[in-house]
Amino acid sequence: MANNAIPRDFLKNVLQNGMGRYVCQLQRITFRFCKSHPGSRHMRDFIENHLLDFTQKNPGVVVYLQPRRHRPPSIVAEFLNGRRESMEMMRKEPQEICKWAEYMRGRSGVQIVNMIHNNHTETPSTQGIWHPFMFRDSETAVAKFPDPKYSAVRETGKTATDYVLEEFNNKE
Q1: pLDDT digits (tens, 9 = 90+) for 67-113
Q2: Any idea which architecture 23-106 has in CATH?
Q3: Where does the Ribosomal protein/NADH dehydrogenase domain start and stop, copy by copy (predicted)?
Q4: Is the pTM of this model over 0.90?
Q5: If you count DSSP H runs as helices and E runs as strands, how many of each does the chain have, helices first?
Q6: Where are the domains of the chain?
Q7: pLDDT 10s digits, 118-156
Q8: In this structure, what is the dihedral angle of CA atoms 39, 42, 44, 45, given to the nearest 10 degrees?
């Protein structure tokens, strides 16, 4: 696997967010709409009915409303790392606009990159994919535990507590 599979910005910024306190990475969000065009009807409905709830839940996010004549509605999100993302909201219902605003609020601002490499081989691995239960008996999948067949108590008559007490007494 290549060393550049995970972006360094991701490891440096995203994984450290939450160590200590959570800092919302969305700095400001702009809702662009037209006051008269029918294509912005749902965005205007969102602004009238749902925007106040969004702003009360997220006091650290600056919200702008930008009316633009004869342009499709959109959301522009600006993050703390300087990135800007915009999404067209044409023909999206107010509930869907709420979901996209929450999506932008929850994002880290790091660019989404495809981490799947286009590697292909004509001879795939004959070993198969390993998993923790690979060499276990398949009967354990349907067994009701505790089952005396798979219990260590069956063989020796001792429980784990007995083993611990025995080791403790032997050391003294």
Answers
A1: 999 999 999 999 999 999 999 999 899 999 999 999 999 998 888 88
A2: 3-Layer(aba) Sandwich (3.40)
A3: 35-108
A4: no
A5: 6, 4
A6: 23-106, 138-171
A7: 777 777 666 777 777 778 878 877 888 777 777 665 566
A8: 150
